[in-house]
Design brief:
heterodimer; A: alpha/beta; Rossmann fold; Alpha-Beta Plaits; globular; B: mainly alpha
């Protein structure tokens, strides 16, 4: 597979604090690569170093075969950037903003086509302040496409959006991917990474804790299988029986809702038999989520 | 870059609030000073109460009117007139008693001036004018000619008044305020909104961005200057003796200098609020110390020694030299040198410190 971005031993220090601490990874053509982590994990700093906005303390960055240190301007021509919570000009219409940004690349922009992509044609002559949060975010993404970039950087594209707006954005990102563009995004929503990203790197305190194809990464969880069930008044003896095969716990204090985490297929089959015998109200088989893995890796919940 | 220039212009004209501020503020000043000091230089209003119908008495009134120094209103009740002085409506009453000037021995021989001690400048000019009139009448009656006299020779024959002086000040003030605040606060807001950062993700060079910004604001400055001069000249009869294009040119240099000050402000302020404060801290003292409203050589020597180097001061000196006296902008090379030094200083600081991004 063609490498689009190659990062080697990248470090960024602010005084003594290493915001990004000796990380290396690659991004391949046509994939969606996700950088996951809490706020302050170093995702944005990493992204901005690749975009040429920040100077690395040490390490190498190659984008589309160009060393970012030497060919920064050349790289800027070929990438599209959506910044975390960046505003746009207050007194220009959406069309005017897109045309203006296109002119920065000496490119003619089909503003209407771009706005159509994100369902904002009716707002073509509005100011950004007239858009809702989701619309702003979609506009911000489409504004990063004015130069028809080969790589698109999206920094927390869905933070703060309602579920429906988030789904719209996922569609948009998928659409961009289908056009053959490579996407690198950051998020702190595990579910989003699970759905969107082909590959994922989990970051914490400037380091990459784990990186792999998303589905493989989830298999790495110590307890990859889960059984969810709801049943009133489960006897202590039954719980003890289940405990032989895996971990059982109440779901966030609901004493009729249980989640059982299991290490392998065999033990999960055995546990399942016991649970089915209890005749629970609902029963769901599942697998560990990225979030479960994340909690295992970092020892805490992302929502903290 | 021209697209950006054009977009900037659109934004400036769509941002009604700050445009109003940039244009209305100096115009309000122009109107206020114009109404107070424009056209005729009335020192104040005086009342004339003439109870006599002689030729000499009429001559007094005529002479007073002929000087064009005061606005004169007729009055026929002394008590109301006195009352108006107390209420500050008029500054003095000239009372000509009944029978004044009658060629009979016991007719009154004195004109009375009742005045507010707060405006003794007015009363002394009235008494001067009436005195000289009466002296000439006395000579006529005695059929003799004065032996000694005064010859008054004004230095230049141009009619200049305080309004002409202050109009140049308002011009400088407008340029300074709109440029320092416009660029300083505007750039700080762009930084806060991450618009500057967003622009650095594109290949456009920072220098072009800045040039587009400066050029588009110069257009606003041109409009400002044209409006102020037009209103000053056509409404309030301001005098401009020098070449108006030179005035525009000097003003443009001044505008660029203050825009650089704006970039300096933006370099040192992280937020819009600090930029606002810093811009005010630069503009307000200069408004009073650089000679916008009054000549700074009236200040104490040590203070004058310092404030004559404020960036606005040489700009105003040059503009006044051109408008009031029709001099070349380089009539005093020192002024051009001070401006040049400030241009270099601000350019150095802003190109060293002003960055579109944090790094």
């Amino acid at each position: 597979m063609e490498k689009i971005i190659t990062i080697k031993n990248l470090t960024k220090k602010y005084g003594e604090l290493a915001a990004v601490n000796n990380i290396s990874f690659e991004v391949f053509k046509g994939e969606i690569f996700g950088l996951l982590g809490e706020n302050g994990a170093g995702k944005t700093t990493t992204l901005e170093m690749i975009e040429g906005l920040r100077q690395p303390t040490s390490g190498e960055i190659e984008v589309l075969g160009h060393d970012i240190k030497k060919d920064r301007d050349l790289v800027k021509e070929k990438i599209g950037v959506q910044l975390q919570s960046s505003a746009y000009y207050q007194f220009l219409t959406l069309t005017e903003i897109l045309n203006l940004f296109g002119s920065f690349y000496n490119k003619k922009v089909d503003a209407m086509h771009l706005l159509e992509m994100v369902g904002l044609t009716s707002k073509a002559k509005s100011f950004v302040s007239k858009l809702s949060g989701g619309q702003k975010q979609r506009f911000s993404i489409v504004a990063s496409l004015v130069n028809n970039p080969e790589v698109v950087f999206l920094d927390e594209p869905t933070t703060g959006l309602d579920p429906l707006a988030r789904r719209h954005l996922w569609d948009l990102i998928t659409q961009i991917k289908r056009e053959g563009k490579t996407i690198i995004l950051t998020t702190h929503y595990m579910e989003e990474a699970e759905i969107l990203c082909d590959r994922v790197a989990i970051m914490e305190q400037g380091k990459i804790l784990a990186m792999d194809d998303t589905h493989r990464l989830m298999n790495r969880a110590e307890y990859p299988y889960t059984v969810n069930f709801v049943k009133e008044d489960v006897k202590k003896s039954s719980i003890e029986k289940i405990q032989k095969f895996g971990k059982i716990e109440n779901l966030f204090g609901k004493n009729n809702h249980f989640i059982v985490r299991l290490k392998d297929k065999e033990s999960s089959n055995k546990a399942l038999k016991i649970i089915e015998a209890l005749e629970p109200e609902t029963l769901t088989l599942g697998r560990a989520s990225l979030e479960d893995l994340f909690i295992e890796l970092t020892g805490k919940s992302i929502e903290e | 870059m021209w697209k950006l220039f054009w977009a900037n212009l659109k934004m400036i004209f769509r941002n009604h609030q700050s445009l109003r501020w940039a244009l209305m503020f100096p115009l309000i000043f122009t109107f206020i000073f114009g109404f107070f000091f424009g056209k005729n230089t009335n020192v104040g209003t005086i009342a004339v109460m003439n109870d006599s119908n002689t030729e000499i008495a009429a001559g007094v009134t005529k002479t007073l009117e002929g000087t064009n120094v005061f606005k004169i209103q007729k009055e026929d009740n002394l008590d109301t007139a006195k009352d108006e002085i107390k209420r500050g409506k008029i500054s003095a009453v000239v009372y000509i008693p009944e029978g004044f000037g009658d060629p009979v021995p016991d007719s009154p021989k004195q004109i009375e001036i009742i005045y507010d001690p707060g405006s003794n400048q007015v009363s002394s000019s009235i008494s001067g004018i009436i005195n000289s009139y009466l002296t000439s009448v006395n000579f006529q009656i005695q059929n003799s000619k004065p032996i000694y006299g005064l010859a008054l020779e004004p230095i230049n024959d141009r009619k200049l008044n305080y309004f002409d002086f202050v109009l140049a000040g308002i011009l400088g003030l407008a340029l300074m305020n709109s440029s320092v605040i416009g660029i300083g606060v505007g750039m700080a807001r762009y930084r806060e909104d991450k618009i500057l950062k967003r622009i650095t993700t594109t290949p456009i060079k920072g220098l072009w961005f800045i040039i587009a910004e400066i050029l588009s604001r110069l257009v606003v400055n041109l409009i400002q200057i044209a409006l102020i001069l037009a209103i000053g000249c056509f409404f309030f009869g301001a005098h401009i003796y020098g070449n108006i294009f030179v005035v525009f040119l000097v003003a443009m240099v001044g505008a660029v200098l203050f825009q650089l000050f704006g970039f300096v402000v933006a370099s040192f302020s992280k937020t819009t609020d600090t930029a606002q404060g810093m811009a005010t801290a630069i503009t307000i003292p200069m408004m009073f110390l650089a000679g916008v409203f009054f000549p700074i050589d009236a200040l104490p020597k040590w203070l004058y020694y310092i404030v004559q180097y404020l960036p606005l001061a040489p700009i105003l000196r040059i503009i006044r030299g051109v408008t009031l006296e029709g001099l070349s902008p380089f009539f005093e090379p020192r002024n051009a040198i001070i401006i040049l030094v400030w241009l270099i200083i601000t350019l150095a600081i802003s190109s060293w410190k002003f960055r579109l991004t944090d790094e």
